[in-house]
């Protein structure tokens, strides 16, 4: 049976990983500066992560949410402590899309309204409401398009005010640092005004932290760079270091009711063990400090390279923008220099999303390779 052919694939077959490196089926080593869409937060095969997951699966990998699971409580307590989101409630699921789907559903339950406001170049997932709030018509099927969504320009506070004052908007959902869309950010003034407008118009303010959360921005959540308190915070990717896990943090003013949300696999024992291991390593290794220091180091070098026209993002969620499309550049980095990087809907942007454990020597390796590739006349001519 053939696989459903929906992914354009590089001709590389990783079979193992360690730290910031992966190794293919031929034994070749690759520097991973993309982490599978920012999923690898504490490094491939981190020993404490491997130990925690192995120990848990040897005892109990799964049972349903019909029973007590103390690991969920422990994960919620650790997350509250490290994130600073005091008194929020945690609902666990399996992915970022599912997290955003539940966030939007909960907002609709809470407000009794159905329309959503989202923003251009935003990406929130591929499930029904989440994909309708995503600014990409190519991945929105007719069944998704039935959702009531208004997409505005980022930083368009006049547009947000006009839409919210119509009285039918249940939620505003925003990435504080856009991922797939190309690392654009709203201003603090914009976010703070949106937050105030949501409060004034019985609208839930949803922070999509699926990619920007878990220390990647230099704070635990990217919204913490601004003076706002989201009603709902969606999380996933770096949460499990590769194990499928997601969730939403829910403001204490939102009351739970039996049956309001649910999931079969979400919050299973194995997922919680993975999630706890990630939080433990983040704290023990002081990875937030490493993110801040490595980001400063990376940006300082990037500023010396004239072909880089703009440096976007925060922390270790970074983008390098050129005046040419970067598809060939990425291929040369992976095939000639064995370095994984990422792309975006902005075809001129190279995305850098390494494990939070990345060091200066790895950044040096990247820039040495990048400078070498940029010296290639074929890449330079491609911009013309």
Automatic annotation (TrEMBL):
Molecular functions per Gene Ontology: identical protein binding; pyridoxal phosphate binding; transaminase activity
Entry-linked Gene3D superfamilies: Aspartate Aminotransferase, domain 1 (3.90.1150.10), Type I PLP-dependent aspartate aminotransferase-like (Major domain) (3.40.640.10)
Keyword line: Aminotransferase, Pyridoxal phosphate, Transferase
Swiss-Prot/TrEMBL cofactor(s): pyridoxal 5'-phosphate
InterPro entries found in the cross-reference section: Aminotrans_3, Aminotrans_3_PPA_site, Class-III_PLP-dep_AT, PyrdxlP-dep_Trfase, PyrdxlP-dep_Trfase_major, PyrdxlP-dep_Trfase_small
UniProt xrefs under CDD domains: OAT_like (cd00610)
Record family assignment: Belongs to the class-III pyridoxal-phosphate-dependent aminotransferase family.
Name of this chain's protein: Aspartate aminotransferase family protein
Annotated organism of origin: Allotamlana fucoidanivorans
């Amino acid at each position: 049976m053939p696989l459903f052919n929906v992914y354009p694939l590089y001709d590389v077959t990783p079979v193992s990983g360690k730290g910031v490196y992966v190794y293919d089926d031929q034994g070749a080593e690759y520097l991973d500066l993309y982490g599978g869409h920012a999923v690898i937060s504490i490094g491939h095969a981190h020993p404490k992560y491997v130990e925690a997951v192995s120990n848990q699966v040897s005892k109990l990998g799964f049972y349903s949410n019909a029973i007590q699971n103390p690991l969920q409580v422990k994960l919620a307590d650790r997350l509250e402590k490290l994130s600073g989101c005091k008194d929020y409630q945690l609902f666990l699921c399996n992915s970022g899309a599912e997290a955003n789907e539940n966030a939007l559903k909960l907002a609709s339950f809470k407000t009794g309204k159905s329309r959503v406001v989202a923003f251009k170049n935003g990406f929130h997932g591929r499930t029904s409401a989440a994909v309708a709030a995503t600014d990409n018509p190519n991945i929105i099927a007719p069944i998704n398009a039935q959702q009531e969504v208004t997409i505005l320009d980022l930083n368009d506070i006049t547009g947000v005010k006009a839409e919210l004052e119509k009285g039918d908007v249940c939620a505003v959902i925003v990435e504080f640092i856009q991922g797939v869309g190309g690392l654009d950010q709203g201003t603090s003034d914009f976010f703070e005004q949106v937050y105030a407008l949501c409060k004034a118009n019985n609208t839930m303010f949803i922070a999509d932290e699926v990619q920007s959360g878990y220390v990647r921005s230099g704070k635990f959540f990217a919204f913490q760079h601004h003076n706002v308190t989201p009603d709902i915070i969606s999380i996933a990717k770096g949460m499990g270091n590769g194990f499928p896990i997601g969730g939403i943090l829910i403001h204490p003013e939102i009351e739970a009711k039996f049956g309001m949300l649910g999931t079969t696999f979400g919050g299973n024992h194995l997922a919680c063990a993975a999630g706890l291991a990630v939080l433990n390593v983040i704290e023990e290794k002081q990875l937030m400090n490493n993110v801040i220091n490595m980001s400063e180091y990376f940006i300082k070098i990037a500023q010396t390279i004239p072909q880089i026209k703009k440096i976007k993002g925060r922390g270790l969620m970074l983008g390098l923008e050129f005046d040419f499309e970067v598809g060939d550049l990425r291929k040369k980095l992976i095939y000639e220099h064995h370095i994984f990087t990422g792309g975006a809907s902005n075809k001129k942007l190279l995305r850098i999303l390494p494990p939070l454990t990345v060091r200066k020597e790895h950044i040096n390796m990247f820039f040495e390779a990048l400078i070498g590739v940029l010296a290639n006349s074929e890449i330079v001519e491609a911009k013309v």
